[in-house]
Hints:
The protein has 16 helices and 21 strands. The protein has 483 residues and is of the alpha/beta class.
Amino acid sequence: MSASTYKQKHHKTKIVATVGPACETYDQLKNLVIAGVNVFRLNFSHGSHEDKKKIIDNIRGINKELNCSVAILGDLQGPKLRVGEIENNRLDVKEGDILTFTNTKCVGTIEKIYVSYPNLAGDVVVGNTIMIDDGKIEVLVHSVEANGDVKVKVTLGGIISSKKGINLPDTKISLPALTEKDLEDAAFIIKEELDWVALSFVKRVADIEMLRGILNEHQSNAKIIAKIEMPEALTNIRDIIIASDAIMIARGDLGVELPVEKIPLIQKELIRKCIHRAKPVIVATQMMESMIDRVKPNRSEITDVANAVIEGADAVMLSGETATGQFPVLVIETMRKIISEVEENGYKYNRSEDLKPQPHSPSFLSDAVCYNASKLSEDSNANALVGMTQSGYTAFMLSSFRPQSPLFIFTKKKSLVNQLSLSWGVKAFYYDKEESLDEIIKDQIQVLKAHGFVNTGDVVINTGSTPIQLHLPTNIIKINKVD
Length: 483
């Protein structure tokens, strides 16, 4: 399919797809874009930098061929805790068994199991719960030995196999958010100019500031996604949302670290908080996992995706479904159909009544302009709501009102064009002219008309700032009819 015949899908809730062996070639990735992908996630827990480089080049080639702006998200592994090699890759443990966790490498047996966490003995206390393999096996800390070993008593038995993950829901982990591997991966992400970087196991604002410092030092335009997957993050969530550029609700580890019944309301509350702060929010993990090897999702998965859309998520994310699944294109098409059905028939648009500008905010005046532009687009049933931005703030703010009118953003900062593909409802264009405001608005409308987004007689709400040369925050609204 050529760029001239391709028309990008315009579902407002965006789709993030993880790249893996099932979809890493040029043609496979292109088919996913045509099916509706807005952002590709590269998981740095797997694969080499050389492999990632090929995928990045493929995505950029597709953007050029199809004249689209699919973003690339680099997801750092973080301090993943695992057991080591297990003898014969199978250790059957039963309730009441006493196991010994050690930080000395060995092949795991009923006598001793290596854990990739050097300070385990320093962080845990007697009575702490430790979960293995996403909670399939549970143990309690029985004693902490002087030599650094930790003895645990099995409370929920099962089979332990090699390299399975460990969760410490009762323990404050002292490991830094950025490991040596993460620092190497971050350097690669900066060099390759990826659009977004996701920081795993965020606990506090300092974790984000550490990564922000590295990005700033190298003058990187990459924006930071804080992955919420630990209880400690929830206690600091207001500050974490403010400090980050976006949030990912990583329900996998979060569902192991916390009682499962708490996850739905946590998801709902995090989405609400992010919308109120005009920060994109992604709902991730096991959204359509049954489609890894099936052509139709479970009914519960359909409802899960639909509920994330109804709650107002900016994006929904697929992991194994596209990375290793048998039907990556089909799962994207299915997810897009669910999103489109909800957006057409059951979505709460125009949420400006819930998001009135706050007088104490340093951006109060521009917030008020965006708020009223969104209200005006609703009142006039506008065919387009248009914003201009250099930082991305106006785009995120207009998006947070969830306008029913199609939302278009023009920016002279090239990196933002792809980055805004993560943000709800946004279609971004690169535009670098600085003439009179009237000429810029006229140009913008002509661009939209040329792409078929508006037609003669349509109503367009434009926002911008004047004087143009001062690059002030958004300070004007203009209503136009397309000539």
